[in-house]
Design brief:
Blueprint: E1 7-8, H1 14-21, H2 25-31, E2 33-37, H3 39-47, E3 62-67, H4 69-74, H5 76-84, E4 88-91, H6 94-100, E5 109-114, H7 120-125, E6 130-134, H8 140-153, E7 157-161, H9 170-176, E8 185-189, H10 191-200, E9 204-208, E10 214-215, H11 216-221, E11 229-233, H12 242-245, E12 250-253, H13 265-284, H14 289-292
Parallel strand pairs: 1-4, 3-4, 6-7, 6-11, 7-8, 9-11, 9-12, 10-12
Antiparallel strand pairs: 2-5, 3-5
Helix pairs in contact: 3-5, 8-9, 8-13
């Protein structure tokens, strides 16, 4: 059990050095740990349990928390939740927390969390109705923001292909604003396998591309958006490769009614995912196959 009150810790502590190394991908992969910064992410991590990485152990995702005295006082509820989760809580001065943090303006809380990605097979077994697939997405901020959009739209899973950014990149974790802890995320899945497997479970796979030959408004008008759907989103700079577009059931563009040249990745993802979510609710009255059984 963790101590009743937070332990004070200095910059020379091996725990601080170990946490600081998690800013680098190779250390994250070796330890299967990552950093979550700020009150929202740490709060979500403290209550998150039962992920695929440690299912059945009863362990919480949050294993360690570094907090400044000011943050510990301001966010006493988070400190309490972290202790309840079994995490070891350390009090450290602002410079120590800043050294661990990867942000320019740290918020005084940095958590060390277990990896929480879900095997792709488990996502398929749950028969999701709405999935976001990130193929060739290299910018961590974009990846985290699309994950947040998927969560907000009620998607039941997100898949990052093997050509996409690391899910646990600190910028991606921050950009998800806690959504990383809300829905299953599979990582490292080849896009060919993702498309084929989703199709095999009855999911229609659509590529979102500004040069698509089908219009999102037309798809909605024709009533083709109500079934289980996976949207594939590509790199913001160059979109989806032709070989990836060719794998899908249709390539759909978001219509531009004004003079804007294009939409950024996260905006386009939000429009597409919400279009599917609305269509699915209109025809089915529920958001999940599993919930309707």
């Amino acid at each position: 059990m963790p101590p009743a009150t937070p332990e004070s810790i200095s910059s020379r502590s091996p725990r601080v050095s170990a946490a600081r190394r998690l800013a680098k991908r190779n250390f994250r992969g070796k330890e299967r740990l990552f950093l979550a910064e700020g009150p929202q992410a740490v709060r979500e991590a403290a209550v998150h349990r039962g992920t695929a990485a440690h299912r059945g152990t009863g362990a919480a995702t949050l294993v360690e928390l570094f907090a400044t005295p000011e943050a510990a006082e301001r966010y006493a509820d988070i400190i309490g939740a972290a202790r309840d989760a079994g995490a070891r809580v350390h009090l450290a001065d602002e410079q120590v927390v800043a050294d661990i943090s990867t942000t320019v303006t740290p918020q005084g809380l940095v958590g060390v969390c277990r990896f929480l990605d879900t095997p792709f097979e488990e996502i398929l077994a749950a028969r999701p109705r709405l999935v976001a697939v990130l193929a060739h997405v290299r910018d961590p901020g974009n990846a985290g923001t699309v994950l947040r959009c998927a969560d907000a739209a009620g998607a039941e899973a997100v898949v990052l292909t093997d050509a996409s950014v690391d899910l646990y990149n600190p910028k991606a974790v921050r950009a998800s604003v806690g959504s990383l802890f809300h829905l299953p995320v599979a990582v490292g899945v080849p896009v060919e396998h993702a498309v084929a497997a989703l199709r095999d479970t009855g999911v229609r796979v659509l590529a979102a591309d500004g040069a698509g030959d089908r219009d999102l408004d037309d798809e909605l008008d024709h009533g083709t958006m109500g079934g289980p759907t996976a949207w594939i989103f590509g790199n913001e700079a160059w979109g989806l490769p032709e070989e990836t577009r060719a794998l899908t059931d249709a390539v759909v563009r978001v219509p531009i009614h004004g003079k804007a040249e294009s939409l950024n990745l996260a905006t386009a993802a939000a429009v597409c995912l919400y279009a599917s979510a609305r269509a699915q609710r209109a025809v089915g009255g529920c958001r999940s196959v599993t919930e309707s059984q």
